[in-house]
Design goal:
9 helices; single chain; Nucleotidyltransferase, domain 5; 333 residues; 10 strands; globular; five-stranded mixed sheet; ATPase_NBD; alpha/beta
């Protein structure tokens, strides 16, 4: 039997999870409401909140799994990518816990963990499969040939899809975090109400900076014509923005599937919780005869269950690191 403690602290969620022989027994997530009044994550405040949250979060995860800290065989933690201050808290705790218990330490790449979240529950994809990984900081298409054999086929050249949602929410004067609110209002609006451009990038890379600018100019022009524009047309502008972001993502994914011939397709990351993206992917999967994999909502956003499941696979390979390990704010897949 292998019992893994997973620790996630890459941004503004402190999370701990217990995995026993590949089965997630607990997944505790502590959010940080303090960032809402600043309209985005403040790194220094995030790291302070992680220090306050990490011990009670780990305790709760252990209790919910009905084990004791003495039962844990290894500690897996997010090494990167992420905010350095936040990563330092999780890394330091994991190193201290492992040192005190004299158990192995396992580093986990946050982006690989998002992809491996698909191995928490059934059905699980077969190798190889394509994964569209979309979050506030990353937008990538990855060819997954094995648990830790991943080839990056395309990524954003500037802003991530999640950032496009969040910046649009700011333009629309919606509170932080705005991405889920855009999703909510979009379900009530007309996705064809406003025309927005799709970047013409020839390969499998993405670009969202031009779209953000187009949204800003559109809203500014409409407000100049009608000061009550946002109040009158919020649902329609949200629907139009969401529709365009989703089409950009899925058109590239369709192109990747055609180039590789892979018929198993997955999404991961915080933006994979977006209902418009999930529904559109299911429809595209039916059209192109793909096997589509979409994680549960709790495994889309940053969480320690994905760290624990990745750590479990590394434990099976005896892939451990020493106490000299340090976090990496920038870490490639």
């Amino acid at each position: 039997m292998a019992i893994i403690l997973g620790i996630e602290s890459s941004c503004d969620e402190t999370s701990a999870s217990i995995c026993i022989d590949g089965e997630i027994k607990s997944n505790i997530i502590a959010g940080q409401a303090i960032h809402s009044k600043y309209g985005g994550v403040v790194p220094e405040l995030a790291s302070r909140a992680h220090q306050q949250n990490i011990i009670p979060t780990v305790d709760q995860a252990i209790q919910q799994a009905k084990i004791t800290k003495n039962d844990i065989d290894a500690v897996a933690f997010t090494r990167g990518p992420g905010l350095l201050g936040s990563l330092l808290v999780g890394t330091s705790f994991a190193k201290s816990f492992a040192l005190a218990r004299e158990i192995p330490l396992i580093e986990v790449n946050h982006m690989q963990a998002h992809i491996l979240a698909h191995f928490i529950d059934d059905p699980k994809p077969n190798f190889p499969f394509l994964c569209l990984t979309v979050s506030g900081g990353h937008t990538q298409i990855v060819l997954v040939n094995g648990y830790f054999e991943m080839e990056l086929l395309g990524q954003t050249l500037d802003d991530a899809a999640g950032e496009a949602f969040d910046k649009t929410a700011k333009i629309l004067t919606l509170p932080y975090p705005g991405g889920p609110l855009i999703d909510k209002y979009a379900q009530l609006g007309d996705p064809n109400a406003f025309s927005l451009p799709e970047p013409q990038i020839a390969d499998l890379n993405f670009s969202f900076s031009g779209l953000k600018t187009a949204i800003l100019y559109l809203v500014q022009a409409k407000i100049k014509e009608d000061p009550q524009f946002l109040e009158r047309h919020l649902n329609d502008i949200c629907a139009s923005v969401q529709s365009r972001i989703v089409s950009i993502l899925l058109n590239k994914l369709k192109k990747a599937a055609k180039q590789t011939g892979v018929k198993e397709v997955a999404i991961a990351g915080g933006v994979s919780a977006n209902s418009g993206l999930r529904n559109a992917l299911v429809e595209m999967g039916e059209e192109y005869k793909w096997r589509v994999f979409i994680p549960k909502f709790e495994y889309c956003t940053d969480n320690a269950a994905m760290i624990a499941i990745a750590g479990y696979q590394k434990y099976l390979r005896q892939d451990f690191v020493g106490q000299d390990i340090t976090p990496l704010a920038r870490m490639h897949i």
